[in-house]
Design goal:
about 20% helix, alpha+beta, SLH_dom, 17 strands, five-stranded mixed beta sheet, DUF3747, about 425 residues
Length: about 425
């Protein structure tokens, strides 16, 4: 990757990868199973952060180990997450974001269609599945039955329970909040392709339809798909700002989020090899954990000053070089051949001859059309031009979908 290099490598650097992180959240068509777990050994918690904000924390107690949490009171039940006071490794299992839990209804994983979140309503916090696609309806799964400061237990509504994702009979780290239409209270409404439960259809949700500045953008469809997948999001004023340039730290953040749509990313995992951190990325920086994780897994960069230059804009050539490294990383995690296979005829760009990234750009043009001309027209790639949010988003979405397609094809061959 060339993301921070004034140093121009003459040839592609070889990336060294190790399977440190298990593959446990790929495409939902990959044949995952559901495994029952002890309902008394798992808890959903509303975890406070910031100013009056809460996110979802799921904790599972490993039998025979020190207690992971304690409960007190009612309406709401207050939770003391004891795991915060000691090393919980080997004692508790926990999931802290959308890569670690999802909704499952009648055997269908709705993780790509719904985002689990906590919203305040009528004096309590309500756990809802917010649709990523505008034509779907909200799902209500439980609530805190009251409101107080601190950690609160989420009581699941009738018909919902905890289970675990499994593959070939082996439980994985991903939690399901699962149910069946027959058991869940409330009216059932059909969605375009998945089962769903409609309990609160009038709730306002933010969807890609609210992005008011992409209607004429050539990447509109890909931006909407990327937002739906959770790769990227718009801004609070319902804009996407497609022509804004992308800084190095912004891109790394987006890239890690894209990888997290394929398998669970644990930013707390410690590198299993020596790694010198970038001296211009303080540990308190908002992007520090993602940069560290990316440096360990796929960036493989450095320069004589050991700096990352996080606020510098990336170029289109640097973007494509990094996208290639992402693809190799994902293929390695999914036990796929690491070679970048050509899926189509590469484009013949008129302005990449002599560029340090010429070979990479050509190769990635033939890999699911990841590298394409400016605004998808003409023959200019403009390798040294700053990468914009719209094209960067399209590149990340293409990488994820291309690798997932390879994984699905490999899975189909195995099952034949």
């Amino acid at each position: 990757m060339k993301i921070n290099l004034p140093l121009r490598l003459a040839t592609l650097a070889t990336v060294t990868f190790s399977s440190f992180i298990p593959f446990n959240t790929p495409v939902k068509a990959a044949g995952f199973e559901e495994q029952a777990i002890d309902q008394e050994g798992v808890i959903a918690i509303a975890r406070p952060y910031g100013q009056n904000k809460y996110d979802l924390l799921v904790i599972e107690q490993i039998p025979g180990k020190q207690a992971c949490w304690a409960e007190n009171g009612s309406n709401p039940v207050l939770v003391d997450p004891l795991l915060l006071n000691f090393d919980f490794t080997g004692i508790c299992r926990r999931a802290t974001d959308s890569n670690g839990y999802s909704i499952r209804v009648d055997g269908t994983d709705l993780g790509l269609d719904y985002l689990l979140r906590l919203v305040p309503r009528n004096g309590e916090l309500v756990l809802v599945g917010t649709p990523r696609v505008g034509s779907y309806s909200e799902i209500v799964l439980g609530s805190t039955k009251g409101l107080a400061s601190g950690f609160m237990k989420i009581i699941l509504n009738p018909g919902w329970q905890f289970s675990k994702r499994a593959y070939q009979g082996k439980a994985l780290g991903h939690f399901y909040i699962s149910g069946s239409k027959a058991a869940i209270a409330g009216d059932v409404a059909a969605t375009p392709s998945n089962p769903s439960v409609t309990l609160n259809p009038d709730t306002n949700t933010t969807t890609t339809a609210g992005l008011k500045d992409i209607s004429n953008n050539p990447y509109k469809t890909e931006i909407e798909k990327a937002v739906a997948l959770g790769i990227v999001s718009g801004f609070e004023d319902n804009t996407f700002r497609p022509q804004d340039s992308v800084t190095r730290e912004q891109f790394v953040s987006m890239a890690v989020d894209a990888i997290a749509t394929v398998y669970k990313v644990d930013l707390a995992t410690q590198p299993q090899r020596d790694m010198i951190p970038f001296k211009d990325v303080e540990s308190s920086r908002w992007s520090a954990n993602k940069i560290k994780w990316a440096q360990w897994n796929f960036l493989n960069v450095g320069n004589p000053n050991n700096t990352f230059q996080p606020t510098e804009s990336i170029t289109r050539a640097e973007l494509i070089d990094t996208a290639r490294r992402m693809a190799i990383h994902l293929k390695n995690q999914l036990d796929l051949p690491r070679e970048i296979q050509q899926t189509q005829e590469p484009a013949k760009f008129s302005d990449i001859s002599g560029s340090w990234a010429q070979t990479v750009i050509t190769e990635m043009s033939g890999y699911c059309g990841v590298a394409t001309p400016i605004n998808e027209t003409g023959t200019e790639f403009a390798p040294d031009r700053k990468a914009t949010r719209d094209y960067t988003t399209a590149v990340l979405k293409r990488i994820v979908e291309c690798v997932k397609s390879e994984a699905q094809q490999a899975n189909n061959k195995t099952n034949q």
